[in-house]
Amino acid sequence: MSVTETTVTVPGLPVDVHILTLAGSSLHVTLSSYGATVTHLIVRDAHGAKKDIIAGFDTPEEYIRYGEDPDANPYFGCVHGGKRGFDKRFWTPAILRQNPPTVRFTYKSRDGEENYPGTLDVSVTYTLTNGELHIEYSASLDESNSPDLQTIVNLTSHPYFNLSGFNLPTVKTHTVYMPRNKGVLELTENQVPTGRILKVADHPELDFTSAPKPLGEDLDRFPAFRGYDHFFLLRDPTPPPPAPSSTVKPHVADGTAVSETPDPLSVVAARATCKESGITLEIRTDAIGFQMYTANWLNVSGHIKGVKSTQRPHGERARGEVSYRPHSAVCFEPSAPVDAINHPAWRDTVVIGKGQTWQQTSVWRFVIESPSA
């Protein structure tokens, strides 16, 4: 197990882009300092073939050139942190350990960036263990802020998974199981949460708790959204009041767990399986819930992995014939509730003041099973 680092000079940019690869026995993960982004995730399928199971581009230039969100919803301006969110900023990387491979990215968001108040110190730490990638987020206001200043924090990751390595054009046959689901946020026609929580027993199209269900089974039940783009709760989003100086986490305040599960990182929040490849992704998180999004607006070709180069890192198959289209991938985005700032009962899950730290941890675990016939 190890970490390697290279730098890429992009003409016209004031800084180099750092590319870091975390190599494990069963996983290879490539990260970019542009956005602290996971650009490659290589796993062997049940046939022994190496698969890159997340969507993306070949080079840093293409990530930067592409610029605008590829599936931007016209109703939102800040759903991903604004026009130029943290995913479009240059982070500073540091290799913390070679074994297990651990990399931390840091970024200082200045007061007024994307109209958010306060200067915020942000970090995301990636650790690769056997079959797992751990992602830890942390954010706090720095000492330059006034004592009474507050700001909004709600961090997540947004990789587009296709567990066939994009051999399948859509993820409609991927099955998903959510054993811990406690409900789904009700949405307006513009996909804004109303504040009500839907019981999945009353909405079978949103029910993934009974058994693994193919994503395509009820995908067409949401014509206005073009598919799933819903926030699935893992616990009650109303937190106890935080102490004046504390760690603000989706599942704790003052160090006391409010989930019925002693350690939410020890149990599965969501499990996605591709029967064709035998690859299963298990997600564990201490977040309040997660957004599941079936790439309903995705429409990319010409700049994707493999289009311009035929040699892929770690020996995975070139995918120049692939275009990323609606439903070609699925995202699981652990976070506090969407639009929490505009719902008084949820507000404390995303608001921090000076002396407080917002933290969240998620784990992606990969299990390989014999594929279906």
Describe this structure in words.
There is one protein chain. The two termini are 34 Å apart. The chain has one helix spanning 60-66; strands at residues 2-8, 17-23, 27-32, 37-44, 50-52, 92-97, 102-109, 120-129, 132-141, 150-152, 175-177, 183-187, 193-198, 213-214, 229-233, 247-248, 252-253, 256-257, 270-274, 279-285, 289-293, 331-335, 351-353, 357-368. The protein is 2% helix and 35% strand. Strand 2 (17-23) and strand 3 (27-32) form a beta hairpin. Residues 68-75, 251-260 and 308-321 have low confidence and may be disordered. It contains one helix and 24 strands. The radius of gyration is 20 Å and the shape is globular. Strands 6, 7, 8, 9, 11, 14, 16, 19, 20 and 24 form a ten-stranded mixed sheet that branches. Strands 1-2-3-4-5 form a five-stranded antiparallel sheet, with no helix packed on it. With 373 residues, the chain is mostly beta strands.
